[in-house]
Specification:
Length: about 350
């Protein structure tokens, strides 16, 4: 039973990541200077997926414009609007039923970032004749996730959604595999939770209570859900640690101090008195002067950094940073300006700040 189809998430408003996500779809936020959803697509393709269906917010076309039809990966990608408002993760799958039909499929939450792949998970699903396969990971805050419940013999017997008192420190991660037809049959037999959503954990609980064969596999290495700004920064750091760097371009800059793994995009200009401490990815057509970048920095294309010291941060494209400040553990959006004030005789700070912005001064 070969898994050829997958549903990837692309909708939602990601309010916990405001203000960054007020102007960009969360799944297009860059991690290691690559849109987050691209990492999920690559993991799915690696596992043998040939057709991907991505849900989008009504009227939003940014995902389609950035991802295309899948030709870049040698697969087919289609998009469908999530209608009826946010009604839970399970509802996303239900809306893709016309694409999936009776075939087995993978469901992948695109804001999940992991080190290893899902190839072994697919192999185990196929060899074990399962109805469903779940990916588990140990976490420090299982109350944020669906949590597996085991009996005294270690057998999986239920899944609880965001329990106040988790029975263990495992989370059901956002990567699932389902056999033919079973998901949509279960969907017709669950009800909305107290928060008004069709929970994916309710699907899995229904499976277990009706005798379906539900397997699980613990993710090797690391897994990160990127629901909050701090999670994004951690995911970026983990990816940069494992990034396949091409240091050839960095070797062309003999006028600055470069240490560690550094990738520099074409057209980037680096003046004197610049220090770069890897791992760092610098996009194309950037300008660096009298600054220190790194470690653990992704700098988007077209950005300018002067005089600042930046580490452990994600800087989106066309940002302009020109001030003698140390910046760390920060997310800086597209076209943002962080500059030294021109009037030195006036106390205070001049700002234009969007909703839910966080600034420490």
């Amino acid at each position: 039973m070969r898994i050829r189809k997958a549903i990837l998430t692309g909708g939602g408003r990601a309010t916990r990541l405001h203000p960054i996500t007020t102007t960009i779809n969360k799944h297009l936020l860059p991690l290691a200077n690559k849109p987050m959803i691209f990492h999920a697509i690559e993991k799915a393709v690696e596992a043998g997926i040939e057709e991907i269906y991505i849900n989008t917010n009504p009227g939003e076309d940014s995902l389609r414009q950035n991802i295309g039809d899948g030709g870049h990966w040698g697969i087919k990608i289609k998009f469908f609007e999530q209608t009826g408002g946010p009604q839970g993760i399970a509802h996303v799958v239900k809306q893709a039923e016309r694409f999936i039909g009776d075939d087995p499929f993978m469901f992948y939450l695109s804001d999940n970032v992991l080190l290893g792949g899902v190839v072994d998970m697919v192999k185990e699903f196929n060899s074990g004749n399962h109805d469903c396969m779940l990916a588990l990971s140990k976490v420090n805050d299982p109350e944020r996730f669906g949590v597996p419940v085991f009996d005294d013999s270690g057998r999986l017997v239920d899944v609880w959604e965001k329990p106040d008192t988790p029975p263990n420190n495992y989370a059901v991660t956002g990567i699932y595999i389902y056999g033919p037809e079973v998901f949509f049959e279960a969907y017709e037999n669950i009800e909305k939770s107290d928060r008004g959503e069709y929970e994916i954990s309710s699907i899995h609980s229904h499976f277990l209570k009706t005798g379906k064969k539900v397997g699980y596999k613990e993710i090797t290495g690391w897994w990160k859900d990127t629901g909050k700004p701090a999670d994004l920064l951690i995911a970026s750091k983990l990816l940069l640690d494992k990034f396949d760097f091409n240091n050839n371009q960095a070797q062309n800059y003999d006028n600055c101090d470069i240490k560690g793994n550094v990738e520099i995009g074409i057209g980037t200009k680096i003046a004197e008195n610049v220090k770069i401490i890897g791992p760092v990815i610098i996009g194309a057509n950037c300008v660096l002067e009298d600054c220190t970048i790194g470690p653990y920095v992704s700098l988007g294309q077209g950005s300018t950094v002067k005089k600042a010291k930046i580490n452990d941060s994600i800087i989106l494209e066309n940002a302009n940073i020109d001030c003698e400040k140390r910046i760390f553990e920060s997310l800086i959006g597209k076209g943002a300006n962080l500059v030294k004030r021109s009037q030195t005789d006036v106390e205070g700070h001049k700002m234009i700040i969007g909703d839910k912005t966080i600034i420490e001064i």
